[in-house]
Structures are given as structure tokens and as C-alpha cells.
Amino acid sequence: MALDTDAKNSNAVAPGDAATVAATTKAASGKAKENNSSAGKKQQQQNQNQNLVNGNGNAADGPAAKKKGKKNRNKSPTEPAAEPVEASLSNGHAEKTSTEEGGDTAAPDTNANVGEKSEDGGAPGSELETEDIDLDALHEVGITVNISSPGADILSVQLSSMELVQEIHQLLMDREETCHRTCFSLQLDNVTLDNFAELKTIEQLEQGSTIKVVEEPYTMREARIHVRHVRDLLKNLDPADAYNGIDCTSLTYLNTITQGDLLDKKKTRPDSVDCTPPEYVTPGVSEPPLLPLHPNIKNSKGPQALKVLTTSAWNPPPGPRKLHGDLMYLYVVTMEDKRFHISACSKGFYINQSTDDTFNPKPDNPSHLSHSLIDLLSHISPSFRRAFQTIQKRRTTRHAFERVATPYQVYQWASPILEHTVDAIRAEDAFSSKLGYEEHIPGQTRDWNEELQTTRELPRKTLPERLLRERAIFKVHGDFVTAATRGAMAVIDGNVLAINPGEDAKMQMFIWNNIFFSLGFDVRDHYKELGGDAAAFVAPRYDLHGVRVYNAVDVEGLYTLGTVVIDYRGYRVTAQSIIPGILEREQEQSVVYGSIDFGKTVLSHPKYLDLLRQAGKHLKILPHAVLNERDEPVELCSSVECKGIIGNDGRHYILDLLRTFPPDVNFLKLPEVQLSKELVDMGFPIEHRHKLCCLRQELLEAFIEDRYVSFIRIAAVHLQQLNSKKQSEKPEEKQLPALEEAEKETSETKEPETEKPVEKKEEEKPQPTSNETKTAEAMVNAIREAQSNVATSNEVQAAEVVKRACAAVGSLKEKEFDFRFNPDVFSSGIRHVDGEEGTCSSLAKQKVLVQDAAEFLVVKQIPAFIKEHLAHSSAPIDGQSLTESLHSHGINVRYLGKVIKLLAQMPRMDYLHRIAVLELIVRATKHIYYTYMQNTEPLHLSAAISHFLNCLLTTGPVNPAVSSEEAHKKRSNGSKHNKHKSKGNKQQASGNQNGSSSGSSSGGSSSSSDWTLVTPRSLWQQIRREAKSYWDWELDCDSIETAVSKYGILRISLLRAFCLKVGIQVLLREYNFESKHKPTFGDEDIVNVFPVVKHISPRATDAYNFYTTGQAKIQQGMFKEGYELISEALNLLNNVFGAMHQENGSCLRMLARLSYLLGDAQDALAIQQRAVIMSERVNGIDHPSTILEYTHLSLYSFANGHVGMSLKLLYRARYLIVLICGEDHPEVALIDSNISLILHALGEYELSLRFIEHALKLNIKYFGSKAMHVAFSYHLMARTQSCMGDFRSALNNEKETYSIYKSQVGEKHEKTRDSAECLRLLTQQAVLLQRKMNDIYSNGKLTSDLPPIHITPPSMGSVLDMLNTINGILFVQISQKDIVKVRSEIEKHFKANSAENEVNDAIKSIVAAANNNGDVDAETDATKDNKDLGTGSTQLTNGEKDAETAVASS
Fold first, then answer.
1. How many of the other CB atoms lie within 10 Å of CB of 524?
2. Is the CB of residue 437 less than 8 Å from the CB of residue 40?
3. What is the DSSP letter of 975?
4. What pLDDT shows up at residue 1418?
5. Could you tell me the CA-to-CA distances from 1316 to 1310, 1313, 1320, 1323, 1343 in Å, in that order?
6. Which phi-psi region, left, alpha or beta, contains residue 1065 (left: φ > 0; alpha: ψ -120 to 50)?
């Protein structure tokens, strides 16, 4: 059973959710234990398999793996622990993190706190030795105990000594035999164990002890928990919760597709495999159907056990019965249609004699008192007993990952019709004002602010402390997001009373469950100068960015608010935790730092300056002075809007962080700014709707990195010049590294707080891209050589060199490399204190710097983004992955129009152009939709949404579903009902809108039936205007038809993207978009609307360090060490996040890949299976990374002999990718090559040929006709055709292969020789065939006995080799010498390249690289897995193109 193995393996420990909260509070605020014994409802509900959460640290599910880990444990930690500190100092963070995180999470300076530690003076070395011991302490000893429970066999489980007793409870509540008990205690030698004690603290507990399960008497609360648990067990298989988006449940279809667990499958014989692809998977599908997205809807539910289980209407027990011990009454209707009234008392449950009309609480005869409700129901209803057993069987055979809750809710955009059943518990949850957690937590509502801040204050000196702290932060944050989302929906649905009910609906604010909610409208003209409602709408998102980066820097003593931004039904709601005491005072009194009126009055505070200065070092914020209302200079270390408030709890809070980063001058029309000619030609500055545009943190880091490289380069050149002069003058002088002297000099002259000499700077920059590192290293070496040759007399000149280099790159200080930004530099209404020319505080210099950074984005980063995607190595599949990729380059989405213009000029980037246009249309439509929704009455939501979708996606009839008389009636009395209606929002639906659809256009009073006036034509005109005004891009279409024909967009992809973007759930059915007679969408097609939630994602720093060190090891070719480090990272991630999290998924994918490379295909399959389920559950069933996981899994299942399975998995992957972005995509070429190969292996030659032809067409389009991919596709075609006996076509294709190989790698190369051999054989076969044909032709029958023609079907082994090749897995034996050679080649290549700026030259060089690159397919993994596996290893994947180039040719 999956669970057992998981339990055995739990050598990592994660205290249960509840326990953490308890432990946290115990540690932090010393409250009594009982206060927090929250067995959170979520936990009860999902009967979370706690053991799974804790453990399974090692990748494989078996004891063997555990031993492997243990053996190396004592020596390995020293390495990983030592390396991350350096790594973190040098990189700040890894480049690609944001892609892993998902969402728009940046990857701020994650390791900041590690960095600080060593700065603080504790020597890193000493800290690490203690770390080493701690790591071992983490993997505590396992002990085996026996558990005996009434009426069940003795159960033997292996536990870790660091687990809590609580987790044995969870384990028992999850197991089949004992799951129906909730109210019991655990006893050892007749002593009851404390739930929150760790096992190692229990003295009598030893190997083989027996723990007894003792049934406890019920209380009212325990009885309710028991009934809820029973209902959860009965509903366990029902996917309704996942479709409704509640309780963090989500879907996974892997087991449906593989028809059961992959690991239990026997190997299949090739001839017994059904491999016909469904119609919608074969090449040439125009619009993929929607139904296959959710396969097997019919039998997903499981059998029904009861008709009704609900609390009885006779509740609560009257006084006399209370004194007899009655706790509550239940009402049950069995499948046999018998009706029972059941009493709960402290001893258990029994049937009483009440009926629907008469109350008679006496026990029925016979009454069957049972401690467990399940036993009682099994007794009275045979069909319940059968059904319950079936449900249990199915529940426990499911993979453990299918049952654990996800950290955040995942919403489905399509849902089948769900039958709505009677469910009292669901009804009670919906109408109780509580959050559902509270009934399990003493003290009722949670003080979110206290919990969030207390967890941040936990100690973080040692690894176990940091793990506990990060786990607590993650847990509380997850609960806070859930609560905030629920509260925001309640606010918009009108379920919460405002705290200022007298004011206009837009200005209302709400408090619910200790969370403060405000709406995204410009209240009291606060943002009047900055863009009104448009600015008020984006401000919360920018504020969230600020919270994210300050949280990541994690300065002790500086606190931010818990912040979640929720978009729901067209409104933007900001949810924040409440600063203690802020509601009792006016804002003016409480702010001690910053400004509440955008800089007219400014305050400062020494403690804040100190804290913000520490944070500013990492965030590159320049301390600057502004004048207050009395013309006195006030020093600030943040933007002016950032406010500091000291709460009643004495903590220093900062809020309003919307301008943490400098403004983006390309989108501000400022009189004093003169942009360069190049930018003006491109149409900048573009006037944006609001004045809050900021540059991204990733951009600033890339910009500083770029400047640093040129700084070193310039210094090196100057030094070499000096050097040659010196050598000619006096060669015999004593040598001294003059540059260091120069630095000493400069460091004495500058202010103390930023002592960063040039050399040290090397460590602090963010992780550079590989070519930049190479050039930087080369430069540094050049400097060192030059240094050693420069004589002493030269200090002055060396200082001069640094000074010149600083001037050349525009450093803020003249004698030192210093780049920091003043976020207020272009803010209107702020009066700056200008310093003297050429110093840090010179305003002119600060302004130039901000302008340079904005120019760098357009001139360098956008071309770099395009250049990176030319290799198609990690091609974005949908708008979300495109956005993440843009963000990782520091490009904001408001530049999308400019990116599209560049992409349009490159036919080889056709697919990316299409995805970008789709994303732009979806975002423009979103802006319009939000305004449209705010003007719609709740009564007509489904009609209005379906009407909007009709206008967007069809050209057929779109008559809105509300009759016109009704609409007129509405018009007269409409405004009474909808209290959040944005006033003054009417936009005529004819043609005269002014394009500003941000919800602030003025005009007559809004009427709630405006939505009926929208037509497809008016909507598309609005979308065009929006595209022009927001992105400065001409959208060249006025209906969905022209969009489809001009840009090749699929309507189903547009529907998916739009539903996900704004939170609509449509009915799962086939939509006929061409329908001419009735509207495509009716109001019953809109099933639900969901919130779109944005929040920060807490990080696991130690796990992250292990992961990056592991990657470094892999890139050096040390797979074993890499595998161990990444297993360790997974262990730590399980510790912090529990079993389900995106980052755990990327670790699993990496481990599977490594297992496969180390030759253990079975292990790879087991791990990858978990990666797929995890991705489906955490990212979504049709998320791009799920597609990637499916393709990997199919390769491993083929390697394990599951041929049919691997085809099914590929078909699923192909269906999903076509649904998301259509067939015209480089990824599809890869999937098609794989499918074709496997079909070929099964002898399905005609099918195989269709797929390989499609792949060939795509490869030629995206890689050029001379690329290696293309040669390989031709070769596969030739193989297939020769097997079909079509030798002539085969010959022609193989000739193409030969000519490409010959031109790319030369005649001597083994590939060319193989191809020549292939040609020879094919020619022979063709000649033989021709002879036979001639013979038959001339004589009418065969006369000569010609030898028979051999057509050998390929062996599975050879097919697997080909699959490996296509997927970028090459097993190559390389010597150390070759590795060195490869490195020097790469460096040469980059030096040559760095000078070229034009994208075109870059294209040429990349084409060349891609062509030389062996058969190694640019498979997506490398870059997605953060450069999966790199140079010089026994195996190469395609991340580092050039490495392979060299290998292939050497």
C-alpha cells in the first residue's frame, strides 16, 4: 500500500499543520499549549496523510533508497552546507527562479539572510560546522511501534522519533481499518500520551512497544467532528469539491489515462497494444474538442452509500435530554429508503424512536449503540456496508498525492454538470460567519497579524530552527490566503457589513475575520494626480510587489502586512492584516515615517532609516533627502509614499510599498526627460493610464550586471595600457597590486555605510548568465595580471583607472562602482535636495541612471529575450509562460506591443508571435470585461457573461437572454440593487467610447442593463482601441473571424485563456463557435465565477541552496552527488511546504531525469509519476508544465517496456498542447517525433508517417532546412518508408539527411558515415525490388530465384536509443581533456558574440550553433529545469547548446 511505504520512509519530519501553529505560538508568545491545539478543519477534512507530508524524503519509495541516502549523509552535508553560502553571496538568486515559482512571482534576493549572517561577523565556517551536526539531527532515528485498536488487527508502523503523537492520530484516521474513529486517545502502559509531545520525549517508548487505541467519550464538539469526518469519507471520491474550488482539492487524471497505477503494470508485448490515436490527436486537427480535457467524468464519483445524512431538525436537545447526555440528533435516509433518527451521546450513536413529526428520544428496540457512526450505519443498511467498502478500497488504492490538499486553491475553467445533493454540513459551512477553522480553535477568530508577525520572529540560527520558522510562515500564510479569498468573495457578494456604511459604495471598507478589505477605486481623489481609478486599480498589485521584495530580504525588526489581492466579479479587493491599534487612531497621528500626501509633508524616523537602509542595500535603493513643508531636508531610504507606522505591539511596520522600484520613464510624459533618438523612433514615451509604472527588480539586476561587466572591461583596458607603458620604463621596480591600493584609497573617502570595494562587488551581484560570467572572469583575470605588473609608484594612476571606468559606466560615485536608484526622482510634487555635481546625491546623475535603466530594457533586454527564444529550447506554450519569461528578463507586460512588433519580423518566431497576440487580446478584453461586470446586476450575471463570451468568440446571433421590456423595467429601478455599482461608468456601446475602459470614463448615470447593448462589433472595436492606447499596438482585426484568419488564433485557446484570466468556469461541452442560428453560449453554460488571487509565495531558503548546489554538481558531471543534494533539497521542501508544492514538483522532475541518466529507469518512472500527479494538482491539468511532465513520463514508461502507456501519455500531452496553443509550435514537433518513433516500433507505419511528416514540416519552419533536427526527421521518414517498401521515397529522404550531415559536420563524422551506409542498403533494396518488378513485367511471373527482400522491423532497444536522442539525452563518454576543450570553445564563442548587438547577427550564430549540435534536440527541459544538465558530463542535455556543438564535432 502506497501509504505504508511512505510511512516507512519518513525520515524527514514536518510537524502537522496544527502542531506547527501550536509550536509556533508556544515558541513565540508563550501561550498555553491547549490554546492552539488546532486540528485545523482542513486537516480533519482531508484526513491528511500526515506521514506522507513528512516524509518520503528520498526519491524512491523503498528502504533501499533510504540506505543509499544514509550512507553518504555524514560526509555530504559539509559540502552542500559550505557551498550555498558562497553561492548565495555571489548570486543573490538564480536566474530562472521565477519560472519555477509560477505566477508573477519575481525571485528576489532569496538568500539575503544567509548573506547577512556572514557579514555580521559570525565566520561562515564556524556556523557551518554546527550546521553539519544539525543536518544529521534532522534525520532522526526511525522506530517501529505496534498499534492495537479495538476490533482490528495489530498494526505495525515505522515512525520518526521527531514526529508528534498527533501524527499517529492522522495516520490512523487515514487507514482503511481505522479511518472511522475520530474520538480516541493513545495509551502506552496505561498512560495517555500528550498529542503535542514528540515521540523522542516519551520515556517508555522503544522499538516494538505497543500503543493502544482507547475510545474516548464524545463531547458536543467531538460528535460534530465525527459526523463531519464520516461525511468526508463518503464524499472522498466525488470531484465536486475540486470543480467548486473549495478545501484546496484539485483534479488529477494521470491514473485515468494510464488506467490504474503505472508501477503495477506488467510489461506489454508490442503486438497486444491498441495504439490508434483518437481523431483529435492526429496531425491536422483544426479545433480540438473540449470534452477530452476531463476524461472519465461518468464514473469518477464512486457508489452512493446513503441518500441523506444531515443534522435533524429536532436539534438542539432540550434541557431534560441534555441531562440524559444527548449531544445532538442526526437524520438518515438509507439507500433502502428507510428513515432513521439517530441520537449522539457521550458513549456513541444509537437509533431513537423519533419520526419526522413526533419527538421521542428513547432508544429504539434494538438500539445498537456504536462508538462509531459508520459501524451503526453498516449495521442498519447492507447497501451502506457494501458501498462504504468499495469507497474505502478505491480511496486507499489512489496514489497518496491524489489525496493531500494543495497549498493554494487551483480553479478549473471548465466543469461538467454537478448534481446538487442535500448536505447539511456544506450548508452549515456556507452560512456560518466563521471561517470553518474556528470551531476547532479555542478563542474563535484568529489574529492574523499576530500570527504572521510572530512566525517571522522565530529564531533562525540553525537549520532545524530555520525549517520550523519557514514551515510556520508558509502554513500561516496559506491559511491567510484562504481566509482572505473567502472574505473578499463575501464582501463583493454583499455578505459583510461595511465599517463606514453611510458612504458611497465605492468608498466602503470592510473588516471580516480580522482582515481589512478595501476596493480598488480612487477614494477621496487620493490618486487624482496619478491617474484616478486606473492608478487605484494597479496600486494594490505594485504594493504586493513591494511586500514581496521586502519579505524576501527579511530584515529583522522590519514588518510588512499580510497582503492578498483578489479580483472577483470585476472588482479588485485588497485584503490586509490589521496593524494593532491603527483603527483607534487617525492615520495622520500614526505615521512616523514617509508621507501621506505624496510628499507635501514628510516625516523621518531614525529606527526606520536604519532598517530601511539595510533592506535598501539589497534592493538597490539610494538613500536621498527631500524638503518637507517647512523647507527642511528630511532623509529617506525608500520612496516618499512608503509609510512607517509603529503598532501598539511596538513593531515597526511599513506599508504602501507601491513605489519600491524606480519609475519607468518610457511610459511617463515628462517635460524634463529627453529620451534617446532610438527610443523616440520606436514611439516612446507612451503616455500610460496611470503614473505608477515601475521597472522590475530583475531588470535592475540585469542592468547593474551589464554595467559591471563593462566597468571591469574598461578598467582592464586602461590597466593594460598603463602596464605596457610601465614595462618599457622601469622593469626592475618592486611589484604591488596597485588596484587594491587604489581601492583602499577610495574606500576611505566614501561614506561608511556602503563600503563595497570593487573586488567584493563581484560577490554581491545577482547570478549572471553564463556568457556574462565568462567574460567577467576573463576581465578579472586580465586585471589581476595587469595589477601584478604595475609598479608601486602607480597608485595614483590606478585610482585614475577606476575613476575613468566609473565615469564611463555612469557610476553614482566617481571612485567606486556604485549603482543604486532613487525611486522618487521623477515624482511630481516632491522637492528634492540636490547634491553637488558628480556625487551620489546629484539629482541629474540619479535621473540619468533611471533613464539608462529604462533604455536598457528596450535596447538590450527585449532583443535578448527574443534571441534566447530563437533556439526554441524552452518555448513558451501559453500567455502565462510567456509572461513569466518576459518577467524573468525584467520586461513588463506593458512592453508586449513592442515585443510583438519585433516578433512579427521573424518568421521563425511565428508561434511566439501568435501566443503574444493572444495574450494581448486577452488582457485588453479583461480591462473591458471588468468595467462591464461592475455594471451588471447580480440577477443577470450568467446572462451577461454568456453574452460577453458570444460577442468575443462568435459572429453568429448574440441576442442577450433578457427581454427588452425587462431591461427597461430594470432601467428605472436598477440602481437600488447593486451596491458596489461603480458610479459614472456608462460607456455607450455604439462607437463613441473614449477607449479608456479602466472603469473611469465619465458620462451619464450608469444603468444596469448596459450589457445588453454590447455587440461583437462594438466589443472588438473597443479591444482595438484598448490595444492601441495601452500597448501602442495596432490590432488589425475587427471580429473574431479576422483574428482567427490573420493571426491563426484558436477560439478554444482564446476561451481557455480568457476564462483563466478573469475567473469564469464554463460548462464542459462541445461549443459550436460557427453556429449561425442560435447563440453559442447560453446562460446555463456559465457554471461559476472564481476569484483570481495574487499573493506572495514564501520560500524555503535552505532547500533552495541545496538545489542550486546540486545543479552545479550536475553541470560538472557529478550525477551521484547531484542526485544526493537534490534528494536532500526535496527532503527540506517536504519539511517546509508539506508534500504538495510546485517546487517539490521541479525537484521530482530533476530526480527522475537523474535516475534515468544513472541507468535506473524504474526509479525514474516512479519519481516522474509523482511529478506528473503533483503538477496536475498544483499547477492545473492543462498547465504547460503538466504537458512537459507527461512527455518525460512517456519516455520513462517506454524504457520500462510500457509501450502502450507511453503512447497514451504522448497523446494526452499532444491534445493538451494543441488545446492551449494549436499545432504550429516547436514542442509539437518534438511530441510528434516521439509518437512517430513509437508507432514505428509497433509496426503502425502509415500512422507513424503522418506524425513524422508533420514534425518535419514544423522543424523546417522553426529550425531552417539545414538544421540537425531536420536531418533527423528525414532519416526517420526514410526508415518508416523503407519498412513500408516504398524505397524510392526512402532514398530521396535519406539523401536529404546525408547532404545536411555532410554540410554541417563533414564527411568524416560518424553520423555522415552512418547515413552513407543507410543509403547503400536502401539502394540495394530498391535495385532488387526493381529487378523483381521487371521480371514479373516481362515474363508475367517470377522466373529467376532472386533473394527475398529483407524488411526488418526495428528492435525496441534501437527505438529507445532514438527516443533518447530526440529528447536530448545523449550518453557520451567524455574525458577531462575534452571538457577543458569544450570550455575554451565556449569562451571563444561568447567573446566573439559579445560584440554583436544586432539580433540578426545573433540569429546567424545561433543557427550555426543549432546546426552543429548533433542530433540533440532542443528539448524544452534544459532551460525549464534551470539548465537541466550541463556541459562535460557523461551525458548532455541540450541546455548548453554550445557545449554540445563542441562535443558533436570533436
1. 8
2. yes
3. G
4. 33
5. 10, 5, 6, 11, 32
6. beta
Asked whether 1355 and 1428 are in contact (CB, 8 A), the reply is no
Element (DSSP H or E) covering residue 1381 = helix 1376-1394
Beta bridge partners of 654: 560, 644
Tell me the per-residue pLDDT of 502-531, one tens digit each, with 9 for 90 and over. Answer: 888 888 999 988 999 999 998 878 888 888
Residue 606 confidence (pLDDT): 92
Pairing relation of β-strands 414-415 and 1064-1067?
parallel
Of residues 599, 586, 605, 597, the one with CA closest to residue 653: 605
* Strand residue runs (E) in 502-622: 509-512, 515-519, 558-560, 563-568, 571-577, 591-593
Check if the beta carbon of residue 975 is closer than 8 Å to that of residue 1008.
yes
| pLDDT of 81 | 35
Over residues 1283-1299, the mean pLDDT reads: 89
> 1405 to each of 870, 904, 1106, 1309, 1392, how far by Cα in Å?
11, 21, 35, 21, 10
Distance CA(471)–CA(13), nearest Å, equals 11
Instruction: For residues 1162 and 290, give the distance between their C-alpha atoms in angstroms, rounded to a whole number.
Output: 34
Angle 1035-1037-1042 from CA coordinates, rounded to 5°: 140
pLDDT category, 696, cuts 50, 70, 90?
A: very high
| Omega within 30 of 0 (cis) for the link into 416 | no
What is the pTM assigned to this prediction? 0.80
Distance CA 224, CA 227 (A): 5
- Count other Cβ atoms within 10 Å, centred on residue 1233: 27
pLDDT band at 787 (very low <50, low <70, confident <90, very high): low
**568 pLDDT exceeds 90?**
yes
Q: Which helix (H) or strand (E) holds 147?
A: strand 142-148
pLDDT at 779 (0 to 100): 61
Which amino acid would we find at residue 67? K
- Amino acid of residue 794: N
Extract the C-alpha cell encoding 93: 538568486
Task: Give the whole-angstrom CA distance, residue 193 versus residue 777.
Answer: 60
**d(Cα 183, Cα 44) in Å, to the nearest integer?**
12
Residue 727: the pLDDT is: 75
pLDDT tens-place string over residues 150-200: 888 888 888 877 788 888 888 888 888 888 888 999 988 888 988 888 888
CA–CA gap between residue 237 and residue 234 (Å, rounded)? 8
Burial of 507 (0-12, 13-18, 19+ CB in 10 A): middle
User: Which residue, among 1435, 1352, 1218, has the nearest Cα to 286 in the 3D structure?
Assistant: 1218
Handedness of CA 491, 495, 499, 504 (dihedral sign): positive
In a 13 Å sphere around the CA of 24, the CA atoms on its Cβ side amount to 30
Distance CA 136, CA 154 (A): 32
| Residue 217: per-residue pLDDT | 94
Cβ-based neighbour number of residue 5 at 10 Å: 17
- Rounded CA-CA distance 1188/1132 in Å is 24
Q: How far apart are CA 417 and CA 256, in angstroms?
A: 19
Contact 794, 783 (CB under 8 A): no
Distance CA(896)–CA(857), nearest Å, equals 12
Count how many residues are written for the chain.
1450
∠ CA 535-540-546 to the nearest 5 degrees? 115
Point out which residues pair with 636 in neighbouring strands: 624
Burial class (CB in 10 A: 0-12, 13-18, 19+), 419: exposed
Strand partners for 331: 310, 341
DSSP 61-106: SSHHHHHHHHHHHTTTTHHHHHHHHHHHHHHSS-TTHHHHH-TT--
